[in-house]
Amino acid sequence: MLPLPPPPEPTSEPTGVRPRSSPSTAARPRDESMADSFPDAWFQFLKSNVFHYQLLNDAERTRLENDARIVVAEKTWEGCGGLTVTDEMKVTIAGQACLMLLGREHNYFRRISTILIYPSAFRTIDEGWQYEGWGPMALEGQAVYHGPVILAWDAVLAEGRDPSSGKNLVIHEFAHQLDFIDGYADGTLDLAGEEAERWQEVLNAEYHRLRREIRQGHDTFLGDYAATSKTEFFATASERFFTQPAKLRHLHASLYDMLLRVYAVSPCEWFAARP
Ligand SMILES: [Zn+2]
């Protein structure tokens, strides 16, 4: 769904890499913006286009609304391929992305300054890049290291409204950006100590298990694309965690448990309490 250009070698000066809990100089204007009311139309966008919104409790909804408002306000949004960006697009994308922040200390995806939106699938902006043996291709999304997130609006809308496919383009691409926080695009996350070690154990075991099952010709829940690299594995596993959590827990219990700690929310409980 979304090949990723190989990132440049991480430099010894990790610009853009900041602790997720670092204080922000923008705290004051943010606090003031939080006092603004959430426009009625924006509630409708969340209700219509972010399936999970109906599953959240009141506190989670309030946090999602506040986080989404800040992401909408602080990112640069650009339409591509003739598309004019609307509030609905911004709120829908921000609402889906901020599901990933509900349980985390975070800085509003600080690494991402720009979000580019195409009406539908687009050709990669980096024509020089392609996987070995792959020609130029249409993409639905791309997360560029030290660059923008690029999304196809039709896929954002369809997958945001209906999680039953197990796919979510926004979660996939923003998961890459969480992966990039530590300066590497390899599935390692900004975890510390034993949690980081445990994540590496689970990531390695599950990634190689998937590759082995694919080599043996099995159909897999995570799919072939997740086996192309560890960053794609993490991004795809994040999609499944938020869209088909019970199935992920059933088939990949260790992976589910680790993602539960990474995201600190419980999608299984959300879906179990579904009205
Ligand atoms: Zn990807």
Strand order of the largest sheet: 1-2-6-5
Rounded average pLDDT: 85
> What is the number of strand segments?
6
Overall tally of domains = 2
The helix-and-strand class reads: alpha/beta
CATH architecture annotation of the largest domain: Orthogonal Bundle
Largest sheet: 4 strands, mixed
Strand residue percentage: 5-15%
Bound molecules: zinc ion
Number of helices: 11
Give the SSE string.
HHHEHEEEEEHHHHHHH
Q: Which geometry do the CA atoms define? A: globular
Name given to the CATH homologous superfamily of the largest domain: Glucose-regulated metallo-peptidase M90, N-terminal domain
Low-confidence stretches: 2-28
Helix content: 40-55%
The CATH topology of the largest domain corresponds to Cyclin A, domain 1
Brief rundown of the structure:
With 275 residues, the protein is of the alpha/beta class. Helices cover 47% and strands 7% of the residues. Helix 4 (87-98) links the parallel strand 1 and strand 2.
Q: Top keywords for this entry?
A:
binds zinc ion; 2 domains; four-stranded mixed sheet; two-stranded antiparallel ribbon; 275 residues; globular; alpha/beta; Cyclin A, domain 1
